[in-house]
Amino acid sequence: MSHTIDGIQFKQMVLHAAAAITIHKQEINDLNVFPVPDGDTGTNMSLTIAAAAAELRRSEQVALDQAAATAAAALLRGARGNSGVILSLLFRGLSKSLKGHASADGALFAQAMQAGVDAAYSAVMKPTEGTVLTVSRLAAKRALEAAEESNDMDFVLAEAVRVGWNVLEQTTEMNPVLQKAGVVDAGGQGYLVILEGMLSALRGEPMPEPVEESAPKQAKADFGSLSDEEITFAFDTVFIVRKREPEVDLAPLRRYLDGIGDSLVIGEDDDAFKVHVHTDIPGSALNEAQKYGTLELAKIENMRTQYDDLAAGKKAQSVDDLDAVEEELEGSAYGGAAVAAPKKRYGFLAVCAGAGLADVFRDLGADGIISGGQTMNPSTESILREINKVPAEMVFVLPNNKNIIMAAQQCAGLTPKEVVVVPTETIPQGITAMMSVDPELEPETLLSAMREAAAGVSTAQITYAARDSDFDGFQISEGDYLALLGGKLFGTDRDLTALLRKLAEQAAEQGAEFVTVFCGEDVSEEQAALAEEIFAQACPGAELSVLPGGQPVYYYIVSIE
Question: Which residues of 391-500 form beta strands (DSSP E)?
Fold first, then answer.
């Protein structure tokens, strides 16, 4: 057994840990559903500690405290994502406790682990149990207890790892999101893989070798069982700012960032600070932070599109793919599409699926249709290509799905045309917005009118359950028909007609003056006639239209005004 460690051993422990988590990063990614289901925790933690390993390889420092400080500084600057920043804080606290020490025994290392936990908890604005915080805290607690039993470095670290794995198994029950997905916490598992790697080095075991595919300790998360509702804010934003002065007070920045997002973590040393935050306005976060120093690096990723990729069984795209994306677009200006010369001031693009719906938008003045919607969201590149085809100076884009709004917004600045995104979340909102268009209005006034019109529409949809699942806290069985109203579950039934009647009654209670029913591709003429009869009876005073929408997935989309 190893009673103490020095700087050379600590360096080897970090190198082993980096190799271990690199091998296991994909299985950790497959568990990543909290705080958002974007499947990148393993990658983020691997890249974060890899930065420390690379710096230690270059370093000639052999003293323990210097090696720990080198690792902590590299981790801070290399930290990626929420899990990476927390990992850097765990090592930052470790480094502070080891300062001034050429070696560490079990007791000192246990104290250093606890200092890391304290640093992580103090930096996270709203700590959540059942995460890496819980695992690290209880592992450090056991390390302190073990040090009193035997002041042996090997024993202390082994006991911390043992208890950590036991705690990790319990995270599924501690966190409702993990429980829904049926997995343990990804960050907690990543931390334990790192500690195990460090213990392996301490025992003189060989460096972990990459293998074709590592055997996962848990099943993959069922990303399909979740929804993008789990993602409160769209952009995972990480950046480093070099301080203007060592003692800068970051408390006001913490309050500001906490007000515009969540999952906030701020790590710092004497020279710089690193921020991780989930927000819808990353630009504002960066601008505010620059009041405290000079922005050095930034990484912004759209977690909604990452979730969509994962739910579809694809690899989630990250900033690590930027080089490949740039190569793909190289030599192809403005997304590969020729830019149409403007022949008018305003143009309009609508996203929808279904020939009938496309015809409605064209009849209302849409210049182009982007095929997309539920289960098939178009990329920013696809939207950009259609924008460039519109022969107008300014193009208004109606996404008609909240999952597409962010992708549409990315088009601004990628084309010589001015892009205005009308944040419509449903087809009825988009149609009503188009009905309010007055080309004589100024842009801001027109946008305001379209938004106001869209806000006055209630949207109901009827679809079906392809498998057993949980929706808004309700158990749904395969084959059930689901009625949604305003994006929330309105009711379920095995009888499609019964759900239609309930929606018609709801429309009557709302005092509907205009009701439009768009029938999907699987709705027969007889079913469409019955839907018209049901709404006519329930809402005799409303102006009623029943039209062929041709949309997939939804049997009926109902606009209620």
Answer: 392-398, 418-421, 458-464, 469-471, 474-476, 481-485, 488-493
Q: In this structure, are residues 235 and 279 in contact, taking their beta carbons and an 8 Å threshold?
A: yes
Give the C-alpha separation, 144 to 97, whole Å: 14
Beta bridge partners, 132, equal none
Residue 410: exposed, middle, or buried by beta-carbon count in 10 A (0-12, 13-18, 19+)? middle
Asked whether residue 185 carries a pLDDT value surpassing 50, the answer given is: yes
Q: Which of 277, 233, 237 is nearest to 255 (CA)?
A: 277
Beta carbons of 483 and 461 less than 8 angstroms apart: yes
Percent of the chain whose predicted confidence (pLDDT) is above 70: 84
Residue type, 30: D
Phi, psi for residue 238 in degrees, rounded to 5: -130, 135
Q: Residue 485: how many CA atoms within 13 Å on its side-chain side?
A: 15
Q: Residue 346 and residue 297: Cα distance in Å, rounded?
A: 37
Angle at which helix 132-149 crosses helix 153-174, to 10 degrees, equals 150
Question: Has residue 512 got a pLDDT over 50?
Answer: yes
Convert the pLDDT of each residue in 310-367 to its tens digit: 555 555 555 555 544 444 444 344 445 578 899 999 999 999 988 899 999 999 999 9
**Residue 436 backbone phi and psi in degrees, to 5:** -95, 0
Sorted by sequence, the CB contacts under 8 Å of residue 357 that are 6+ apart come out as 427, 518, 549, 550, 551
CA distances from 538 to 73, 428, 504, 549 (A): 67, 20, 6, 22
Contacts of 442 (CB under 8 A, 6+ apart): none
Token pair belonging to 406: 């962010």
CB 45 within 8 A of CB 28: yes
Work out whether the CA dihedral 432, 434, 439, 444 comes out positive or negative: positive
Tokens for 396?
Answer: 């208004």
Distances from the Cα of 382 to the Cαs of 65, 278, 377, in angstroms? 52, 26, 10
Q: Where are the alpha helices (DSSP H) in 125-237?
A: 132-149, 153-174, 176-181, 186-202
* Six token digits for residue 3: 């009673």
CA atoms within 13 A on the CB side of 272: 18
